[in-house]
Automatic annotation (TrEMBL):
Domain of life: Bacteria
Statement: the UniProt record of this protein carries the keyword Signal: yes
Segment forming the signal sequence: 1-25
UniProt organism field: Enterovirga rhinocerotis
Alphabetical UniProt keywords: Signal
SUPFAM superfamilies: Sialidases
Name of the protein in question: BNR repeat protein
Length: 390
């Protein structure tokens, strides 16, 4: 096993990110995450749903509200929350804080939305980032293709709650945090845009997240790292260009700006499920899903990787093997696993962006019927042990 260098101080880490310095790649392994617990069911629609729209369909995001209660978003497009005194005792709230409107105008960014990242300082005012899908195939004349993925135009937009996540509102016009520098096209032919933001994490005076893109000419596909000093101002998010956090992605329906490409962060092949900071060492851990390729990802499933600076990550390690959505329903064998995240019930931060030497892996198990995914899905968790080398 390689010798691992000492972890930089918080000041040095902040300096690397603030000044845009790119440190040397980490010597693997920095950390190991191992499943040590049996499967527990957090939410199953057959038992817990308010109606047929309540299925797990996103990575679990959690915060503590002003009363100390826990709020978790992980559901489908009505964005109903799971609430309870702690992560072990959650029940669905049947009120919909941000229902999707199915708006046919892509410039209004209100077709199909998921609350996929949240941040709060006081548990009352909640900043949210929404994964927005403009599903052009559902709107006559908006897409020449019949396959829905060929018609998706994805963006990340902002919303805000002033009542602890009971209701959310968007600005008018919508505030776009991440969008490609072009509009939805009738003949686009493939999934395009920015999608699936990770959770938001704190480091010093800044907040960070990753957002994935399918790319375009000049822009590689994969996740990019974003930063802000003020999450209450969603226009302040900037993407990392390889040297500094300089890139502002605006609204292509209201601006003709052509921002520079963001730097794709390796080794992630697609969206990052969750990022957390290890309390004992300050190291960063990330969990994500990948399709087996016989190389970097020997098997399909969930992987973890670690970093000292959010930019350079070590060799991915398999956490849980199994076919994911990236494998396709036809190759599933009957079930898929998706949407991994890590939550520590003993997290010190209000936003559950830190972990100790143990945490829980949250994920969705999805039943497949032939070659079709179904709404038969359960939100599960398994206890994990975490080891970070000093």
């Amino acid at each position: 096993m390689s010798t691992v260098r000492a972890i930089p101080t918080a000041a040095l880490l902040a300096g690397l990110l603030l000044c845009g310095g790119t440190p040397r790649a980490a010597d693997p392994p920095l950390a190991a995450v191992t499943i040590v617990g049996a499967v527990e069911t957090v939410f199953t629609p057959k038992r817990d749903a308010c109606d047929g729209d309540d299925v797990p369909d996103a990575n679990a995001r959690a915060f503590r509200d002003a009363t100390g209660s826990v709020v978790v978003f992980a559901m489908h497009m009505k964005n109903r929350a799971l609430r309870g005194p702690d992560l072990a005792n959650l029940k669905i709230d049947c009120a919909s804080p941000l229902p999707s409107q199915g708006d046919a105008d892509p410039a209004r960014y209100d077709d199909a939305t998921w609350i996929t990242a949240t941040w709060t300082e006081d548990g009352r005012r909640i900043e949210a980032l929404l994964h927005h899908e403009y599903r052009a195939n559902t709107h006559p004349g908006r897409c020449t293709h019949k396959e829905y993925l060929a018609c998706w135009y994805n963006t990340v937009v902002a919303a805000r709650s002033m009542d602890g996540g009971r209701t959310f509102e968007r600005a008018s016009p919508p505030v776009v945090v991440a969008a490609p520098p072009f509009r939805q096209e009738v003949g686009q032919g493939r999934h395009r845009g920015f999608f699936n933001p990770s959770n938001i994490v704190a480091h010093g005076r800044h907040r960070y997240m990753m957002v994935s893109t399918t790319g375009w000419p000049g822009q590689a596909s994969g996740p990019c790292l974003f930063r802000t000093a003020d999450p209450a101002d969603p226009t302040s998010w900037r993407a990392f260009d390889g040297k500094e956090f300089s890139i502002r992605y605006g609204d292509p329906y209201r601006s003709d700006a052509k921002p520079a490409p963001c730097r794709v962060i390796a080794p992630f092949p697609a969206p990052v499920g969750a990022i957390v900071r290890h309390r004992g060492t300050g190291a960063w851990l990330a969990v994500f899903q990948a399709k087996g390729d016989g190389g970097r990802f020997p098997q399909s499933g969930f992987y973890t990787t670690a970093s000292r600076d959010l930019i350079s990550w070590d060799k991915p390690r398999l956490l849980l093997a199994g076919p994911t959505l990236y494998d396709g329903a036809c190759d599933s064998g009957g079930t898929l696993i998706n949407y991994p995240s890590l939550l520590d019930p003993k997290a010190e931060g209000r936003n559950f962006d830190d972990v100790g030497d143990s945490a829980d892996l949250y994920y969705t198990r999805l039943v497949v019927d032939g070659c079709k995914t179904t709404s038969d899905r359960d939100l599960l968790r398994r206890h994990v042990a975490i080891k970070v080398w000093p």
